Amino acid sequence: MTTFQLEKHVNYVKSLDKKSDFDSVVMEHLRMSGAYWGLTALDLMHSLNDMDGEEIAAWILKCQHDCGGFGGNIGHDPHILYTLSAVQILALFDKLSVVDADKIAKYISGLQREDGSFAGDEWGEIDTRFTYTAVSCLSLLKRLDSINVEKATDFLVRCRNFDGGFGCTPGAESHAGQIFCCVGALAILGALHHVDRDLLGWWLCERQVKAGGLNGRPEKLPDVCYSWWVLSSLIIIDRAHWISKEKLRDFILNCQDQDRGGISDAPDDAVDVFHTFFGVGGLSLLEYPGLKSIDPAYALPVDVIDRVFYGQKS
Amino acid sequence: MTNDNWVPFNERPDWDDIEPVPQDDGPHPVVPISYTEHFREVMDYFRAILAKDERSLRALQLTAEVISLNSANYTVWHFRRLVLEALDYDLEEESIFLETIAEMNYKNYQFWQHRRWVAQKRASVAAPDELKYTEVVFNDDSKNYHAWSHRQWVLLNLGGWEGELEYCSKLLSQDIYNNSAWNQRYFVITKDPSRGGLQAMLESEVQYTLLAIRQAPSNESPWRYLRGLFKDDKLNLLTRNDVITVCLEQLAEEESSVHALNLLLDLMASGLVTGRGGEQCFRKPEGCKVISEGLNQGAASVTPQSHKRYVKGFYGRRCMNVD
Ligand SMILES: [Zn+2]
To answer: How many domains are contained in chain B?
Structure first.
C-alpha cells in the first residue's frame, strides 16, 4: 500500500520559497492564499517551527491597506479572500495581536449588502464564498457582532437548493465548494438547524466515485480538493460515515508525487500547493496517523482554534 | 506567451516618461516570484501607471497586455474598470475586447466579473448578447459554473426568460445527466415571473421528470428534481400514484435501485402505507440492507472527537463575544 510521504511534502512546500517558474509568476497576486495553504499544510505536518513567523507577519502587514483589508501581495488591491488568508496565517503563528481587529472588522462589515450577502471587494461581486470568508474571519477576530448575523444567515438559507445543497447565489446549482462555504459559515454562526442533514448528506455521499475519490457535482471527475470540500461538510453535519473513508484515503495517497513530494488534483497530474494543502487536510480529517487534527469549519489546525477561542497553548 | 512582434516598453517612445516600478516582495519572500523578462517589464510599467493612477488610453492598452499575460490578476481588472469609467469608453468595444480573450478565460472569476460589470452598464440591450454568449460556452462545457451563474444573473436582472425552459429541454435532450440543466430548469419554474410558480408548473414537470427517470433510472438528477417539485407539499407526494408506480417499477427491475428505495423510504417515514406491493420489494435482501442503513439514524457515527463540537453546536454564538 502507498504510504504518506510526510518528509517529501514538507520539503516540497518549503522549496516553493525558492521556486522560479511561470506558475509562481501567475500566482503573484494570490501569494497571501498560497502562503496560507503552504503554511497550514506545514503545521498539520508538525513543521511550522521551521518557518520565520516574525518575517512573515511583517510581510503580511505590508499587504494591508488603510481601509483595513489586505491584498494578495504588496501593491495589490484589498480583497476579502486575502484578508481571511492574512488573518489565518497570523492565527497559525499566534500573532493575531499585531493587527487592529476593529479596523479589519470595519472593512468586512462594509462589504455586507442590504440582503445580508457579502461582496468580495468594492466592485460588488456577490458569492456565498465571501459570506464564509467574512464569517470565518470575523469569528477568528471575535468581531462577529460587527455584521448583521441574522441577515447573513438568511442569505445563506436563500442559497439552499431543492437537493439540500447550496450554490453561490440563490438558485445557483449545488456545488461542493459552495456547500463547504455555506455549511461552514452556518456552523460558525451556530445555525446548522437550517441544514437538512439527511438530504444534504445523501447528495454529498453520492459524490464518491467508484475509484474512491470525490467529485464536486454529479457526473464530474474526482479531484483531491473535493476531499476537503465534501468531507469537511459531511463531518460538520455528522454524516461522514456515509462514505468509504478507506477508499478516499487511498485515492489521496495515489495523488502524491512519490519522488519530489506534493499532491496533485488527480493521479499522475502535476502537483501544486493548493492540492497539497487540501490533500493533507483531507487526510487529517480522516485521522491519518502522524498529522495534526484540522478543524473542518475553520480549515486551521484544531490546536490553533482552541488557542484562539480558549487561550489554550499547545 | 511571447509574441515575436512585441516591442519592449523601454523601446517605445510614447512610454519614455514612465519609470518602471519593480515588485516589492519584502526581504525574504515566503513564496518568492521570479519573472520572465517580458512579463517583468510589462508588470513594472503597470505598477508605474498604477502608482500615477494614470487613467489614459495608453493605460487601457497596457491593462490589455497585462491581462493577456495573466488574466487572473484581479488588480489589473479593477484598474481597467477605473480607466474605462474615466474615458467614458464605448462598452460595446469592451464587449468585443472580451470576445477576443474569452476562450482562455472560461473558468476565470475576474473575466466573468468584468463581463457582468459591462453587461450591467449596457443594461437590457445586453441581455440577448449575454444569453447567446453563455450558450457558446455551453457548447464547449455545458456545466460551466461561471457561465450558469452569469446566465441566471442576466435573466434576473436584464430579462430574456422567454425561451429558457425550452433551452433547458434542449440541453437535457442532448445529455439527460446534465445536472446544471436540471438546476436551471428548477430555477426557471420557480423564478420566471410569467410562469406562475411551482404549483402552476407541477403537473407538466412531474410528467417530464418521470419520463426522464424511466429513460435513465440511475441518474440522480431527476430523482432529486422530483422531490424538489414537492418541496413545500410533501403530503401531496404521498397521493401521487404515478410517482409511487415509477418507484416500484424501478425496484422490480433493479432491486437495489437506491434512488427508488430512498424516495419510497422517505414517503414511508412521512406516512405512506405500502399496500401497493411495496412490502414485496422491501423483503428482498438488497432492499433491506439499504433501508436498514437509511432508517438507522443513530448509525455508529465515526466523527472524530475533535470534530464533535459541530455536532453538538459547540461553537455557535459564543464566538461572538468580543474580548
Ligand atoms: Zn481541485
So the answer is: 2
Burial class (CB in 10 A: 0-12, 13-18, 19+), B178: buried
Tell the residue number behind the cell numbers 497585462, with chain if given. B66
Cβ neighbours of residue A288 under 8 Å, at least 6 residues apart? A4, A249
Residue B209 lies in a domain: no
A-chain residue closest to B31, CA distance: A17
Active site residue B284: no
Where is the domain boundary, B41, B73, B89?
B89
Helices (H), A1-144: 6-15, 22-26, 31-44, 53-62, 80-92, 101-109, 128-140
Catalytic residue among B107, B143, B289, B312: B107
- How many Cβ atoms are within 10 Å of B314's Cβ, its own excluded? 13
Q: Please indicate, yes or no, if residue B181 is contained in any of the structural domains.
A: no
- Cα A198 to averaged position of ligand 1 atoms, centre (Å): 26
d(C-alpha B222, C-alpha A27), whole Å: 40
Tell me if B25 is assigned to some domain: yes
- Number of A/B CB contacts below 8 angstroms equals 206
Instruction: Enter the pTM of the model.
Output: 0.88
Which residue range(s) make up the domain with B288? Answer: 236-323
Is the residue at B69 inside a domain? yes
> Cβ distance A77 to B74 under 8 Å?
yes
| Grid cell listed for B100 | 477576443
Contact call for A75 and B24, based on CB within 8 A: yes
Residue A205 is placed in which grid cell? 455521499
Task: Dig out the grid coordinates for A196 from the structure.
Answer: 437538512
ipTM score for this prediction: 0.93
DSSP label of A174: P
Q: What is the pLDDT of residues B114-173, one digit of tens each?
A: 999 999 999 888 999 999 999 999 999 999 999 999 999 999 999 999 999 999 999 999
Length of chain A in terms of residues written: 314
State how far the alpha carbon of B254 is from the alpha carbons of A97, A105, B176, B262, in Å.
61, 56, 20, 13
Burial class (CB in 10 A: 0-12, 13-18, 19+), A275: buried
Candidates B168, B143, B216; CA nearest to A219 is B143
Q: What are the backbone angles phi and psi of residue B200, rounded to the nearest 5°?
A: -65, -30
Measure the CA–CA gap between A148 and A146, rounded to whole angstroms: 7
Tell me the pLDDT tens digit for each residue of B234-277.
888 888 999 999 999 998 888 778 899 888 888 888 777 655 44
pLDDT, residue A38, reads 95
Task: Report residue A234 as a C-alpha cell.
Answer: 459531511
Best CA proximity match to B146, nearest among B134, B132, B128: B134
Of B89, B120, B144, the last residue of a domain is: B89
If you count DSSP H runs as helices and E runs as strands, how many of each does chain B have, helices first? 17, 0
From the CA of B150, how many Å to the nearest CA of chain A?
Answer: 10
**Which residues, including other chains, have CB under 8 Å from residue B216's CB and lie 6 or more apart?**
B176, B177, B222
B303-313 b/e (C-beta count within 10 Å ≥ 16 → b): beebbebbbee
CB contact (8 A) between residue A241 and residue B302: yes
Q: What is the largest CA-CA distance in chain A?
A: 53
> Hey, which residues does A166 pair with through a beta bridge?
A160
